[in-house]
Each structure stands twice: as structure tokens, then as C-alpha cells.
Amino acid sequence: MYMIIDIFLTFIFRYITILREPLRRLESAFKYFHLQRRFPGLEKQTRHGTPPVVTYLTRPGYWDPRYRQPKRISDKEHFCFRNCMARDLGMKEKDYDNRTAVQEFVQGIEKEFTTVMILEYLSESLVLLKRRMCWTFHDILYTYGRSSRKQRYKRKAHVTSTMKNRFYNRNYADVMLYTRFKESLQRQIKEGGTDFRQEVMHFKRVNKDVGRYCHAKKKKRPEKIVVPKSKWSDAFSVDRPFCGRYGKSRKYWHPRLQSAYH
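-> C-alpha cells emitted (262 positions)
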């Protein structure tokens, strides 16, 4: 009996995910994936100098049925325009407009997931995750990928309150998910008090120093840097091989994580 319990505890899984403000996620999808190409006629109806996402937000109910699925199965995961975060977490499309089903779905995520991070509070989310997993700062270092750093959008989307409300109504599941877990995170930050806020500030400095080291020209970059011990983390070093993996895209990490998982 004790041996069975021991084996069971060895394989306890921790489910973690990250959410983003739904409207910002849609804007990013249009910019990064050129989502307008999946809606026949949308580009033609977009005025010169206007971001295509604005044309979509003007009449989402009109454009949604006109969405054209990509042929490749692998692309279907990325090309999404409605309740995409809820979909990725397992919600069925038939339940999008069922508010009771949405509430039950959100409650289920609360029970199943150890940590739900919020992109707009990324550093705070990572520090909270670090505390729960008993990690060090080294385990939560991050940078933005090359594509994110290179994105400089000339046309800023002017989204009216009417557009926003219309979009939120059609994406009720994503809005409920984001609102619930954003409020939960804000509450945890408040409960963490001064020590938590100081740890986040210190982590941001550490993360910035590591980023500066890894993004420096190779000729000027020393073999490694050492991040000293603090009250929140053990000391660790960062070297050139680490920087070689630093900021790699999903295409690099996905097969490696997938093979490790299986």
C-alpha cells in the first residue's frame, strides 16, 4: 500500500497555462498570422491605411460564418478568431453561447490547473509559479522571441467601445476566463504583500541583466555571468550555450518538449 502511494505521488502532474486579454490576442493574431486572409473579401473591404482587424471588429457576426479553414491540420491550431483560449483548454464550440456551460467550464479550469498566468502580468505570474514549484530565478528567465521583437506595426488599430463590447459578447468564454484569472492573480499579488512586490522587482532586474548579456555581441560577451544569491533565489550562472537557446521560437521548443513528454 505504501509503495503504491509513493509511486502515485511521484507522477503527480501540474497543469499550467497562460491567458491574454482577448481583444489584444485577436489583434496579435491578425498581425502575426495575417488572419484577414482567412476571411474572403475582408481585405477588399478594408480601407487603405486601416488595420484589417478593424474591418473585422465592425461586423464580427458577418465575418465569422465566412471564415475559411486552412487546409493543413497543423495550421488549424493557430488560425482562430473566436474563444480561442477556451477552445485550446478544451471547450466545445457548441457551448460558446451557453453561459451556464461557460461558467462550469471556468470552474473546472480553476480546479484542474495549478497556475494560470496572465501575459499582461508576466513577471508576477512567473514569480508566483516559481514559489509554487520551489524553483529559482534561473527556471523562469524569459525573453520575447525574435518575431515579437521585430514586430513594429505602422498602423495602430482604433477600436471603439462599441467594437470592443460587440467582440466581448461574441467571445464570452474567453472574457470570463481572462477576467476570472486576472482577478485571482491580482488578489494573490495583493496577498503577497511587500515581499512579493520586492521579489518581482528583483527578478525583473535579474531578467534584464541576463537579456542584456545574451543580446550583446559575441565578441563583447564574456564566457558567462554569475547571478548572486538573494533572499529569493540561489545563485546561478548563465553562459553562451544558454544564450544560444535563449529566445528560440515555438518551432524549436515544441518538438523537444513533445519528445520529452512522451
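The first strand starts at residue 16 and ends at 19.
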